[in-house]
């Protein structure tokens, strides 16, 4: 199978996110014939330009701590605060595009789309701190009594009603993406499938949680682990 036939929407988005300005010929050919990926590419290019402009502006003293206090309601170590500030700046462009522009709200589908738009979450170690995860979970309204798996990635992303968390955990069933999304968009359990991913969204804490994995067993195992190991206070 050659590079042209291997190229699809997911492969294109991975390539575009990895190196936006240096795409292979197969990726450029796909972009030229796929309206959705062409629009995605334009959003990434616009985001790159915005990030460059942001990086040229000095960050006001104390901005990182204020962001972290607003999100988590408690102080943190400076290096974590800076990581949080960078997370908000760098995720805003792509994340907001995922959650907007739909006439109806389909939480499982949106969670899967977010995973597809953020393939680096499976290969990058980011804020991989179990204590930080406990803090995030506590702010969302849940007391974590036992580990849900090895935390390998956490990122703050814009959601439909405010910033939410995208967390990736290694479990004995494989890697699982867990979203903690504020708001009241989900009032009962909802499931969905898309592009080989399975998702479950259900009310919890200050909003809802969405679990995304490549098989039903991993989704079910994480849902059971959360029921057994999180005490929801809201």
- How far apart, in Å, are the first and last alpha carbons? 52 Å
Tally of discrete structural domains: 2
User: Into which percentage range does the β-strand content fall?
Assistant: 15-25%
As a whole number of angstroms, the C-alpha radius of gyration is 18 Å
Describe the biggest sheet? 6 strands, antiparallel
Query: Could you report the average pLDDT, rounded to the nearest whole number?
Result: 79
Instruction: Count the DSSP helices.
Output: 9
Number of strands: 8
Give start-end ranges of low-pLDDT stretches.
1-5, 73-79, 81-103
Secondary-structure element sequence? HHHHHHHHEEEEEEEHE
Give the overall form. Answer: globular
Helix and strand content put the structural class at alpha+beta
Q: Write out the strand line-up for the largest beta sheet, numbering strands in chain order.
A: 2-3-4-7-6-5
Q: In which range does the helix fraction lie?
A: 40-55%
Describe this structure in words.
It comes from Niveibacterium umoris. Keywords: Membrane, Transmembrane, Transmembrane helix. This is DUF3379 domain-containing protein. The chain crosses the membrane at residues 79-99. The chain has 234 residues and is of the alpha+beta class. It folds into two domains: 1-57, no CATH class; 61-232, no CATH class. The chain contains nine helices and eight strands. It has helices at residues 3-6, 9-18, 25-33, 35-55, 63-72, 78-99, 107-117, 130-140, 216-229; strands spanning 142-144, 150-159, 162-171, 174-182, 190-194, 197-204, 207-213, 230-232. The strands form two sheets. The protein has a six-stranded antiparallel beta sheet, sandwiched between helices. Strands 1-8 form a two-stranded antiparallel ribbon. A hairpin with a 2-residue loop joins β6 (197-204) and β7. The protein is globular and about 50 Å long. The N and C termini lie far apart (52 Å). Mean pLDDT is 79; it is low at 1-5, 73-79 and 81-103.
């Amino acid at each position: 199978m050659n590079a042209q036939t291997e190229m699809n929407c997911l492969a294109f988005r991975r390539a575009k996110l990895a190196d936006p300005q240096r795409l292979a010929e197969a990726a450029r050919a796909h972009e030229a014939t796929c309206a959705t990926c062409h629009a995605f590419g334009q959003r990434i290019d616009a985001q790159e330009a915005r990030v460059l402009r942001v990086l040229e502006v000095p960050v006001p003293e104390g901005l990182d701590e204020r962001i972290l206090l607003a999100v988590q309601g408690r102080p943190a170590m400076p290096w974590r605060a800076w990581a949080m500030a960078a997370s908000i700046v760098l995720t805003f462009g792509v994340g907001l595009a995922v959650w907007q522009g739909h006439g109806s709200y389909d939480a499982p589908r949106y969670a899967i789309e977010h995973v597809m738009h953020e393939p680096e979450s499976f290969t990058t170690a980011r804020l991989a701190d179990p204590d930080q995860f406990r803090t995030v979970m506590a702010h969302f309204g849940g007391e974590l009594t036992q580990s849900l798996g090895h935390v390998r990635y956490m990122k703050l992303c814009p959601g439909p009603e405010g910033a939410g968390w995208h967390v990736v955990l290694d479990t004995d069933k494989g890697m699982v993406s867990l979203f903690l999304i504020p708001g009241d968009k989900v009032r009962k359990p909802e499931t969905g499938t898309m592009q080989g991913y399975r998702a479950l969204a259900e009310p919890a804490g200050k909003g809802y949680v969405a679990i995304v994995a490549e098989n039903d067993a991993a989704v079910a195992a994480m849902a059971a682990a959360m029921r057994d190991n999180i005490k929801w206070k809201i």
